[in-house]
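Record type: monomer structure entry
Structure origin: computed from sequence
Chain ID: A
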Amino acid sequence: MPSGGLDFEWALSGTLSGMTITRVLGRSGIEVSAIGLGCWAKRVDRVRAALTADGRTLAQGSLGWLLARSPRTVPIPGFRTVAQVEENLATLALGPLPDDAYLEVERLLADLRPVDAGAEA
């Protein structure tokens, strides 16, 4: 089912640390090239680098990014192990992602966000 007015769908599985494309449904004949996947992989690597630049784990960087987006944000992360709970709780001591890292992630993801329907072009 198309979303956001796009005429194709992506079926993704995994996480930022291990994302794989499992299927692409090209309703308008859009093909995904190896070059396109290579560009995506480079972007994912740059986002990962920004999230972990100050020594955080990827999970801690992701939670820190959420905290940096708004002081009213309260992430509710999932977990399966005690180690994951401890890793998530350590984010509280680290606090929000530093401004430079947050802005880099925002820059890298900006073109993936839908355009505000009320904004003028």
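Annotation 1: The first strand starts at residue 9 and ends at 13.
Annotation 2: Residues 54-110 form one domain.
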